[in-house]
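Supplementary Note 3. Input sequence used for the single-chain structure prediction.
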Amino acid sequence: MTGPVARDDPTRHTRLRVAAYAIGLGLIGCVTVAVLQAHLDRVDSLSIVLGVAAVAAGLSVTRLRGGASVSASFIVLLLAAAFLGSASGCIAAAISELTAARRLRTPPFAVAFNLLGSLAPALVAANMIRVLAPARSNTATFYLALFAAGVVATAVNYAIVAPLQQLYRGGDGGLSLQAVRGYAPSVVLNILLAVAGASIYVKLGLGGIVFALVAVFAFSYMTHLVTTAEHRAEQYRDLSWGVLAGLVRALDARDQRAARHSAAVARFARDLARATKMSERECELAHTAGLLHDIGRFALSDRVSERGRVLSEEDWEAIQRHPALGADMLRDLGVYGPVADIVLSHHERVDGRGYPRALGHDEIPEIAKIIAVAEVYDTLTAQDTYRTRVSSFEALRELRRVAGTQLDSSYVEAFADLLAGEGVDYRHADDASFDAELDIERRIKDTVEG
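The predicted structure, written as discrete structure tokens, is reproduced below.
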């Protein structure tokens, strides 16, 4: 298999030309072999059924993330090769591939190597079955030969398509061994389905194979619907995270500490959750909630954010609404529920005198208690805060003073232990970066996979 080739590699165009000639010769060779062996094929009503199935397989092909695609064409190819012969297997493969290429608007070079990657396996499978189990009867030998032909055909397809795809995409699109391991279960399932389809045809005849193929295409269509839904969900999550990031940056424009403070609270909250042996999911939850804990301040009046202004009772009432406003914004934008619940509760106090719901100690989400510790600490130690900056030691003393009333004592002590092993840059999070902590591409990816 060829190694990665950079898109700006000056030899890439030469390699593509050579590959195009090789593909052309390979296609000519496959067609020649199929024509020479055409007299060995049988033509009957099964030919029509599998021809229609090949068209259906091409129309139902589903594009996966990363550019790969899946369809039922392999099952049709294998059945045609097994029961009809080499030429029929190649015709079924060509119909399916060309139909899929038209539907997906595949570029010509990719169409060519995909076509070669279908015709060659069809020839290999047909000839293996003809040699190993010429009777094509209801025997273990036939089914084992069909399974072996499926495995070898898959290997031939990989050997042809993987290096050509890698070359075509400039080194970043080849099917790696890791990708092969990921696809292996579906490949084995396809081969087993082909074997099952063959058994149904041998025992029940044409009606049985029609029913089996309809079931396969129904499942394939469902897969297409699921993949489409996942793609739309990914776009929606992308939009949601982009809107949230934009809101935080807009808030930062009004109050220039907002983005840095959110990043610092997120970092402290994640590390404190990890230090208290929370699960990785809970640590990620703490990090996300820390980033978004003050998002509700976007809905507050500009005067609330002005430094040096004496806030009125009405202003304080508005400030106490920001957790609920933030939680409502997150729910409206589709961010999963636990984050909104934590944002809603991050100003609650363990003595029940917090806001907006005056929850008691046991009613406050544990991660909301962590966010509260991180927020108070950063407010005390940051240089861009509204109050006089204090040292980490003085901030911890203040945290311990309000432990048991405002903050949870266990998390205060765990945070003190965490800070004991860190340097000044960490303890005073002046360089905290919202973009770095957000890491939006990873976050969207993790959310989709989760």
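The longest strand covers residues 62-63. The beta strands are 62-63, 69-70.
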